[in-house]
Write a structure and sequence with these properties.
By secondary structure, this protein is α/β, with parallel strands linked by helices. It folds into two domains: 132 residues, Rossmann fold (3-Layer(aba) Sandwich), CATH 3.40.50; 69 residues, Alpha-Beta Plaits. Helices cover 29% and strands 24% of the residues. It contains six helices and 14 strands. The strands form three sheets. It has a seven-stranded mixed β-sheet with strand order 3-2-1-4-7-13-14, with helices on both faces. Strands 9-10-8-11 form a four-stranded antiparallel β-sheet. A three-stranded antiparallel β-sheet has the order 5-6-12, covered by helices on one side. A hairpin with a 2-residue loop joins strand 13 and strand 14. Helix 1 crosses helix 2. It is globular. The protein starts with a helix and ends with a strand. The chain binds ribulose-5-phosphate (5RP). Ribulose-5-phosphate binds next to helix 2 and helix 4. InterPro entries: NagB/RpiA_transferase-like, Ribose5P_isomerase_typA_subgr, Ribose5P_isomerase_type_A. It is an enzyme of class 5 (isomerase). This is Ribose-5-phosphate isomerase A. Its EC number is 5.3.1.6.
Length: 228
């Protein structure tokens, strides 16, 4: 199967975890696109009653266009389940996210969810995190100084640019640095260090957060549940 077909298969499968009356967090990215598409279909055709919160303007716009009831985060008291993609997942189900520059909102929604499901194709499974550049959202104020500090620490930052070579802005109008680390031997220590640096808004290591992973394989979606 092609990568997009694998993404579609897990996006569709994940909707089976959404039950009537739930408040659901919707992630961001090309895999979540298929999830939202299928959820919209079940809302329209099967009258599934749910309300959702979004992790990005992109997902919000797609979901609204499909008639899914969307709520601002401050208007919901609990999030029953969040379904999101990931850029890398290691054997302990720790992950890197932020390839779509949405990891700050994604993490806020994830940590406030009772349960988190990640939907990925097989290419996202790695032995060790770090081949994917680690996204770090930073405030524009002081970004140059922070960039230099990361360089001095050997973290090889790259300012994320769009197709026009302009800096990518997150939904909060911040920048993203991608740290070209190769491998991350101690993810918890790195996460802690990054979070201590003034100007860092959020870093893309998602540790000890996911409960279920749905992996797209040629044999069909494989579900790994109750991870934590
Ligand atoms: O973290 C993310 C966005 O910030 C995405 O979930 C991640 O980049 C995976 O995206 P895709 O499903 O397009 O491969």
């Amino acid at each position: 199967m092609k990568q997009n077909e694998l993404k579609q298969s897990v996006g569709i499968k994940a909707v089976d975890f959404i039950q009537e009356g739930m408040t659901v967090g919707l992630g961001t990215g090309s895999t979540v696109y298929y999830l939202v598409e299928e959820l919209g279909r079940r809302v329209q055709e099967k009258q599934l009653q749910v309300q959702c919160v979004s992790t990005s303007q992109r997902t919000w716009d797609q979901a609204c266009a499909l008639g899914i009831t969307m709520k601002p985060l401050q208007e919901v008291s609990t999030i029953d389940l969040t379904i999101d993609g990931a850029d890398e997942i290691d054997p302990d189900f720790q992950g890197i996210k932020g390839g779509g520059a949405a990891h700050t909102y994604e993490k806020i929604v994830a940590v406030n969810s009772r349960k988190n499901i990640w939907i990925v194709d097989e290419s996202k499974l790695v032995d060790q995190l770090g081949a994917f550049g680690l996204p770090v959202e930073v405030l524009p104020f002081g970004a140059q100084q922070l960039f230099q500090r990361f360089q001095a620490e050997g973290l090889q930052p790259k300012l994320r640019l769009d197709d026009q070579q302009d800096p990518v802005h997150t939904d909060s109008q911040n920048y993203v640095f991608d740290l070209e680390l190769g491998t991350i031997k101690h993810p918890h220590l790195l996460a802690q260090w990054l979070e201590e640096q003034a100007g860092v808004v959020e870093q893309g290591l998602f540790l000890d957060l996911v409960n279920t992973v749905i992996i797209g394989t040629d044999q069909g979606p494989k579900i790994i549940s109750d991870i934590r």
